[in-house]
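Consider the tokenized backbone below.
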């Protein structure tokens, strides 16, 4: 089976690493000349709206998926005329737009921060008067890793904020005084079978995910599964989906979804019976889903800007290095380490050891 992937970054690369043992081959459509997934398959270098090359991809593969939600929904809709594409164009259309996304959560009875659609500075002024400050203003599409957003703490922050974010459609969300940030990785098969990984505790630095630790018997696991299950069913979703939540007053409030494999699920490569990457491929290919059971205690640390010396990283017991093959650049995700241990105390020591290497890099 040959899988087409829209996008050739590290997520596409890790999908191919998971699919190769299953006898799958890959083709990546990505405009970047140095797309890091190209070492794992054919690289069709083209823009995501290039219909001729999209048709070429469709003719070469058995099905198509995508590695990130910056792909236009129109691209997926076009491809679906010729080849199966999972997740669907409709799922992508909703997940990539924060207004559609939050509106879906509200319709499904999933708690969210107060939010408003912002099409102008006048809309922003009115929304701030209604929602209050502090609040977070975000572009409706394309923002990620802290990009495309601004925290509004005082009246002076509101002035000119719409222009500051590019005078593009935005959403204003009430600030959530959360006690923690968690995410749930789920996978849904073509026939509707759904499986969930353990909730993950996430720590961000400057809006970028830094550390993810898989939980053990989290008290909010079932509630998170209920909320995510509602979204998966409503979208008739196929593949892996990540749902990020705020922990608030012993419950959960929705932050956002990602219609793809997700950074906070990287720990599953070594820390679960079947990784999120393999399970995504199983789901879209119509294969039986794999076990999402956690193996021991697991965590993931991102390497931002550069990867520490390989020999030092792998010298840490049960530390697994994943180098993306990207050029080092400030603020860029260039690799990660996954850690696995028999108990949490040992895992914490491993995390500290990797963090010390990051500090030295």
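A designed sequence for it:
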């Amino acid at each position: 089976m040959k899988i087409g992937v829209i996008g050739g970054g590290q997520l596409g690369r890790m999908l191919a690493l998971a699919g190769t043992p299953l006898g799958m081959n890959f083709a990546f459509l990505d405009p970047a000349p140095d797309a890091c997934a190209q070492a794992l398959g054919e690289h069709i270098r083209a823009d995501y709206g290039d219909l001729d090359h999209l048709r070429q991809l469709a003719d070469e593969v058995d099905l198509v998926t995508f590695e990130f939600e910056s792909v236009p929904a129109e691209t997926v809709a076009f491809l679906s005329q010729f080849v199966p594409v999972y997740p669907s164009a409709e799922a992508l259309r909703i997940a990539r737009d924060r207004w559609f996304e939050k509106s879906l959560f509200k319709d499904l009875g999933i708690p969210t921060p107060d939010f408003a659609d912002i099409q102008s500075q006048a809309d922003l002024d009115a929304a701030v008067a209604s929602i209050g400050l502090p609040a977070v203003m975000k572009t409706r599409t394309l923002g990620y890793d802290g990009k495309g957003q601004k925290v509004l703490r005082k009246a002076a922050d509101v002035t000119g904020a719409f222009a500051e974010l590019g005078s593009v459609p935005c959403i204003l969300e009430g600030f959530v005084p959360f006690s923690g940030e968690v995410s749930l990785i789920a996978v849904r098969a073509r026939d509707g079978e759904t499986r969930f990984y353990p909730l993950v505790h996430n720590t961000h630095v400057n809006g970028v995910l830094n550390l993810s630790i898989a939980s053990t018997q989290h008290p909010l696991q079932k509630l998170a599964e209920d909320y995510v299950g509602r979204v998966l069913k409503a979208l008739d979703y196929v593949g892996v989906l990540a749902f990020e939540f705020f922990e608030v007053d012993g419950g959960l409030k929705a932050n956002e979804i990602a219609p793809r494999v997700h950074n906070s699920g990287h720990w599953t490569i070594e820390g679960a019976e079947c990784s999120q990457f393999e399970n995504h491929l199983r789901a879209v290919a119509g294969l039986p889903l794999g076990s999402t059971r956690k193996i021991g205690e697991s965590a993931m640390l991102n390497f931002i800007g550069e990867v520490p010396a390989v020999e030092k990283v792998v010298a840490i017991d049960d530390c697994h290095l994943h180098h993306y093959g990207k050029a080092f650049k400030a603020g860029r995700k260039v690799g990660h380490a996954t850690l696995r241990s028999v108990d949490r105390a040992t895992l914490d020591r491993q995390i500290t050891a990797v963090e010390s290497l990051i500090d030295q890099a």
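The chain has three domains: 2-85, 114-174, 180-360.
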